[in-house]
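Journal club prep, notes for RB
We'll compare a predicted complex against what the paper describes. Inputs for the zinc ion case:
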Amino acid sequence: MLAAGAQDAGQIVVLRSAALFDGVSPALMARPSVLIADGVIAAVYGPAGLLPAGARVVDLPGLTLMPGLVDAHLHLCFDATGDPAGHLADTRDGLLREHMAEAARRALRAGVTTVRDLGDRGYLALDLRDSDPAGGAGPLPTIVAAGPPITTPGGHCHFLGGATSGERGLRAAVRDHAERGVDVIKVMASGGNITPGSLPHEAQFSAGELRAIVDEAHRHGLPVTAHAHSAKSIADAVAAGVDGIEHATFMTADGVDAPETVIRAIASHRVAVGWTVGRDPAQPGSVPPQIAGRMPGLIAARRRLYESGALLVPGSDAGVTPAKPHDVLRFAPEDMAVVGLSPAEILSAMTSRAAQACGLGHRKGRIAVGFDADILAIDGNPLQDLAAICRLHAIYAGGRAIHSALGGRARIEVA
Ligand SMILES: [Zn+2]
């Protein structure tokens, strides 16, 4: 289907298409040409632009270019089955690393060119991040990784190896993560759904412990994002100065309670709200019962966050259930539209905003000069039909052509 091969070193490639969404602007650009040199976008111009001599032109007629998708929250080490924790326990590191690489490639083949792994075992996501791009069984997306999440003994995802306690222990754990080279510190501020005995609506750490984690991480120049379902853990994490809150469901024992003061603090402190979105529609009835029963309250709280101007960042949490395979992000728009976001806001959130939340806002998530050439060619106008991102005909990651798992027709010609 896609004939364009890997870019030769030094060669200039020009992608020409019918339209372009640049990751930020609320309107499409008509008949763009995107010039790529050494994997980076060197120029973006309209129909009147001259092609440089010797450039290789890739015509993508009728298609729309857009930035590669950024999944700001997934787990390469979970296998998207009904028992990801059990399977993980049965898998040794060597095989697990292979499975994680395949999960990452699956995301890439569906247009997810950057992923942020918010919880692995044994720092294996960092190992993949740093692996030779020419090695292995094919290219990987850009990986940002947290290593094992910091949690309490027996707490949420303790089996990933990041359990510790007390302020001294927590500071030591942050330092250890920093020395290992993580991009972000992930802390489990509340319980979670996939750990037996862990309750999402209960906090795991005191406000003082969260402050110690944030202080130590920031001292090492690392951002902190806190998994937090319970209203108390969200409030404590925001007060502690975290950079992001994952899930932010405001769960109580029997419902949802999102205090206005906390919503306002999240918005005014520009805390990134990791919005868990995207479910495979082929897996009906896959919303866990503890979420399904709270759905009206969850949507209402999310809408208040949106209306208060909070920084909403989509992330799939891929890997944790059968409804969340590692290429699930393309189904996120449906969940986001429910809250009232426009198609342009949704696409910006899935590209440029998610890239910013991952610390890569300077080189990912936009089609602009100086940004990495992570570019998708999709069939349709995504500002009118968000499902167009599922009709994915071409993928470029750092200027390199990737085979799309989702393309429909053989319509790409290489001149
Ligand atoms: Zn997660």
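Talking point for the session: The two ends are 15 Å apart (CA to CA).
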